[in-house]
Amino acid sequence: MPAYKAPLRDVRFLMNELLDYPAHFKKLANGELADADTVDMILEGVADICENVLSPLYQTGDDEGCHFDNGTVTTPKGYKEAYTQFIQGGWQGLSYPEQYGGQNLPMSLNLIKSEMMATANWSFTMYPGLSMGCMNTILRYGTEEQKNTYMPPLVDGSWAGTMCLTEPQCGTDLGQVKTRVEPNGDGSFKMFGTKIFISSGEHDLTDNIIHIVLARLPDAPKGTRGITLFIVPKFLVNADGTLGARNGVTCGSLEHKMGIKASATAVLNFDGATAYQIGPDHKGLECMFTFMNTARIGTAVQGVAHAELSFQGALPYAKDRISMRALSGKKNPDKVADAIIHHADVRRMLLTQKAVAEGGRAMIYHAAMLADKMTDGIVAGDEKTAEYWDDKLGFYTPILKGFLTEMGQECASLGVQVYGGHGYIKEWGMEQILRDSRISTLYEGTTGIQALDLLGRKVLLGSKGKIVRDYTTEIVKFCGRQARNKQMRRFIWDLTKVCAEWNTLTLRLMLMARKDRDIVSSAAVDYLMYSGYAMMAYTWAQMAAVAYDKLEKGGAEDAAFYTAKIQTAEFYFDRLLPRAGAHAEAMVTPSSVLTQMEIDSFALN
Amino acid sequence: MPAYKAPLRDVRFLMNELLDYPAHFKKLANGELADADTVDMILEGVADICENVLSPLYQTGDDEGCHFDNGTVTTPKGYKEAYTQFIQGGWQGLSYPEQYGGQNLPMSLNLIKSEMMATANWSFTMYPGLSMGCMNTILRYGTEEQKNTYMPPLVDGSWAGTMCLTEPQCGTDLGQVKTRVEPNGDGSFKMFGTKIFISSGEHDLTDNIIHIVLARLPDAPKGTRGITLFIVPKFLVNADGTLGARNGVTCGSLEHKMGIKASATAVLNFDGATAYQIGPDHKGLECMFTFMNTARIGTAVQGVAHAELSFQGALPYAKDRISMRALSGKKNPDKVADAIIHHADVRRMLLTQKAVAEGGRAMIYHAAMLADKMTDGIVAGDEKTAEYWDDKLGFYTPILKGFLTEMGQECASLGVQVYGGHGYIKEWGMEQILRDSRISTLYEGTTGIQALDLLGRKVLLGSKGKIVRDYTTEIVKFCGRQARNKQMRRFIWDLTKVCAEWNTLTLRLMLMARKDRDIVSSAAVDYLMYSGYAMMAYTWAQMAAVAYDKLEKGGAEDAAFYTAKIQTAEFYFDRLLPRAGAHAEAMVTPSSVLTQMEIDSFALN
Fold it and tell me: For residues A178 and A180, what is the distance between their CA atoms, to the nearest angstrom?
């Protein structure tokens, strides 16, 4: 079973050498709290709980799963104790306001914390993760009373929260939501309906669970413009904050899933449950969209997490397992065969994992800085600034969520492959990572939905390609700055080509879309993947530039680390970036090649 | 749960329209047995048992799994009854000699039968499948007495067989095998050792199990040249053919696997088990290699099977599930949303599955004809002919096994993706197909091993590229024949480019290999995938040519079928073939980009 080791050297490389987090923090209103000592303490503390508390429960949680008994859900052995330890450390409130008991640190630190926790134990991490969606909603749209009632126990983690969107007939298409409320006359409502796929919908980790639910007011218009947000607590809350009666929301069953078995995925039945409106009438979906970017980056983390964990599992096996001789001659002459890490093809798999894990982590850490700036705007009540950074983030979000989760699955599968037949056996733990990863391209918007959001909404409709021109302009500037650095030449050359091609593809699709109305759906996933490969290429080139610089400035201490960064960048450009070309070619095919087939002709017998 | 429907229209298209099986059968010694009526009866009979007996047990078998109790293994509910029905139909002996109770039909029919069974229920199909490996070994290398003792009950299916190769310390590298024998003095041996990952190693379907085991004679040289084959029956067999004492081979445990849970994967302990040598001293591995091609094609079938079953599961859901509106306008105006099959991106996924399932099936049916010719040579005692066709087949084998199983996994994953979140839930059955498919690139030689076999052994060392030149010459001839067919032009143009590029890549790697000894391992998987995309392109072009021809000759009856074939070919060339270019670019990178990193630098903290 892969035991998680927090990659703190890489974390510090990203924060201090690539992205200059210290300077970034200084520009934030709450940045002075994130001084070097505090950040160090947080990193070490998170690493400790991840390595020693969460990681040991990863495989046992999968074996045991969650238990459902007549509406009651019990998490696997050790989860409650681990959760208690987690909240006693104050980890849940890291980036939430001091007035509700939090530590008010920048959101980015929360994301960095989440990435480590996610890698150590994704299923566990979903419980506090869902609570954050709930807290963000209440913070942004709640009344003072709602904030004062719900935030303190959510921030200290004694309560948890959920987001209840999906229903049996709809997930993506939330305009079809049927759950509805009736007024009680006292300002509260009675809710009726069924929600499915509710992560952390019921469990035994906390005293109360606060559901944020999408539902329809009695006079609601049809479709997406008739959905409102409601707070539905599992236990009603008395005026003094103590718990009152059990509310009419019950867990009908837990789903039996391919993976993330320690995460309770609930069917929730609302049978006249008391519900409190939060936010304006009929604007529930718009309110939800405010968090879309941050929520999706939270899921993008899963791609990095599974690539990293699978890499951490595969590497020791590749060093240990001996089989055949390397083609270039014996490497372990004292043994009957060479360790499989000496086979170039095994290294191809390991380096793919490493390139995705480290490249993806850098992409997320970069996006986290934008999220900080956006949050800074919100907290200052500066909606314009908040919107500016949210828009910026909006370009990265679908790429990170769509591309990194697809790549995370590939990497988890490669981890199985490195183990050969042993990868298929539960005991080794590699197949669990693959099963757990498979959800990541499905929830929080499938890859297809991310791709539509990117190409349709953000690139073509939203900016007529400007968003890509702006981003590639930034890359070209970087290339200009590196032009005299001979060592960087091969990266710069490839990046320049990618920038030109990316804009050409965008323009071409924009022109095609005038006549070919299905082209956006037809091209979207290839466009998303292309964008992901391009963005990761820029990221790796930046990391290589820093590494060359550090190597030049000497200090043999970390030379191996910087050299590995450069070598991984070379691997990425030589072996992974070429795939962008295949996506480029595929996406500009007219959509008719997909739409022309009669539905009845898909299968004829 | 996806209910299997045998794609008989496609089967007949391949046998009668694309490949001309009737003419092929006429050239075989046993071909006259395979007349049109017999073939029809077989296809209908296999379809019937697959649809009505095997398919209903697919999901229940996964849920229940195999039971292990103190050395005894019980297969899931219904498996024994299904197996009994299967053998009572005489299906196990379809292509085995009449003198042992078989029907002596061409091997290709057996493979065609296997593909349908594999799609309906892969785990079930492994039990009779493993027996075939055992039967082939005994038929080829057994003494008359061994054949007379073991073949009749294996052919009628009352006994089953296994192949015992893998040990804890080695799977690929069988030179490390430690299992050994000691002579009993009466010609038989005592065997000591442990074998793992033995499919069908223990179960309750048959009265006896005949293990074919790789082990070392007392005087055996080290490594691969010291391995001999042995027969180890679960129950010893008396002179009159009745069962005698329980032999000293016991099942120590069953593996807990990601999928194929209804297939019993056993740890077998040989504690002085009575063993009978089969075949010459120390030539066990060479003997095994005789079957490598057919065994690997048997596993390639799994790729097609999972692509097909996942497609059959995804298609009705895509027609049924409504979500959002198609970009080109409402398709189901009477409903609140359009069926998701109207979204181009969903069609991209379905067409990928369809292209791989039908293209892969055609590739396997073609290879099956080569296997027939090889078998014809063996049966006639014409080793030269047998070797000629085995060599021919040897080019297809690693491509089919490696490429089709990789593609099968992608298609199984796409089947989950079409279902969105529901794909992740066990109840729908789509995630099972993905879990079951994951083994296919691991056993019977990983993709990496197939790739080394193709590029290293067959293409570079074995033929200095001639094998590719010969194959592409065949394609170029096809292109020449189609040159005047305007409709075929776009396929022909792409195919011609691929042929040129394939040879160029081969030559380039051959030249690189002179100095870069690791290049074969470094390039192999990309070369394999390139070859797969190229071969499938040729296959789809051939199918399109037949379809155009049939359409021209009229007969509106099947027009929809032929049109769909052409449209799928177009999809393949536009959307999947471009990937070959990415593999081409990646493979010619010097191996140093993989080998340069110090082992300790893969992870630094």
Answer: 6
Task: At A176, list the tokens.
Answer: 């079809």
Using the beta-carbon criterion (under 8 Å), do A344 and B518 form an inter-chain contact? yes
Q: SS3 for A311-334, per residue? A: HHHHHHHHHHCECCCCCCCCCCCC
B11-48 per-position pLDDT tens digit: 999 999 999 999 999 999 999 999 999 999 999 999 99
Q: Could you give the percent of chain B with pLDDT greater than 70?
A: 100
The mean pLDDT of B260-288, rounded to a whole number, is 97
- Residue of A9, A169, A597, A600 to mutate, interface with B, max B Cβ within 10 Å: A597
- Hey, which residues does B271 pair with through a beta bridge? B192
Q: Which of A150, A26, A58, A145 is CA-nearest to residue A431?
A: A58
From the list B341, B344, B594, which residue is nearest A347 (CB)?
Answer: B594
Could you give phi then psi for residue B319, rounded to 5 degrees?
-80, -25
Give the residue-averaged pLDDT of B345-369: 98
In this predicted structure, what is the pLDDT of residue B291? 80
CB contact residues (below 8 A), chain B span 531-560, against chain A: 560
Residue B1 pLDDT exceeds 80? no
- Is B446 in the A-facing interface, judged by CB distances under 8 Å? yes
What span, in angstroms and rounded, lies between the C-alpha atoms of B282 and B285?
A: 8
Count of positions (residues) in chain B: 605
Per-residue pLDDT averaged across A200-216, rounded? 98
The minimum CA-CA distance between B284 and chain A, rounded to whole Å, is: 18
Active site residues of B: 444
Specify the residue for token string 């503390």.
Answer: A45
C-beta atoms of B438 and A431 within 8 A: yes
Residue A2 has pLDDT above 80, yes or no: no
Question: What backbone torsions phi and psi does residue A216 show, to the nearest 5 degrees?
Answer: -110, 135
Query: By percentage, how much of chain A surpasses pLDDT 90?
Result: 97
Partner residues linked to B449 by β-bridges: none
Q: Which residues numbered 334-373 in A keep a CB inside 8 Å of some CB on B?
A: 336-337, 341, 343-348, 350-351, 354
Give the tokens for residue A482.
Answer: 């590196």
Q: Which residues of B200-232 are buried (b: 16+ CB within 10 A; e: fewer)?
A: bbbbebbebbbbbbbbbbeebeeeeebbbbbbb
Collapsing DSSP states into helix, strand and coil, what is residue B53? helix
The answer, for A280 touching chain B at a CB cutoff of 8 Å, is no
CA distance B131 to A372: 63
Question: CA-based diameter of chain A, in Å?
Answer: 83
Q: Is A189:A182 a contact under the CB 8 Å cutoff? A: yes
Residue A290 has pLDDT above 90, yes or no: no
Mutate to test the interface with B, among A116, A299, A345 (most CBs of B within 10 A): A345
Per-residue model confidence (pLDDT) at position A1: 65
Q: Report residue B119's pLDDT band, with 50, 70 and 90 as the boundaries.
A: very high
- What mean pLDDT is predicted for residues B336-340? 97
Give the start-end residues of each E strand in A516-580: none
Using a CB-CB distance cutoff of 8 angstroms, which residues of chain A are in contact with residue B550? none
**Distance between terminal CA atoms of chain A?**
47
* pTM (two decimals): 0.98
User: CB contact, 8 Å: B1 with chain A?
Assistant: no
Buried b (16+ CB within 10 A) or exposed e, B376-402: bbbeeeeeeebeebbbbbbbbbbbbbb
Interface check for B524 against chain A (CB to CB < 8 A): the answer is yes
Tokens of B295: 């065994």
Predicted confidence (pLDDT) at residue A557 exceeds the cutoff of 90: no
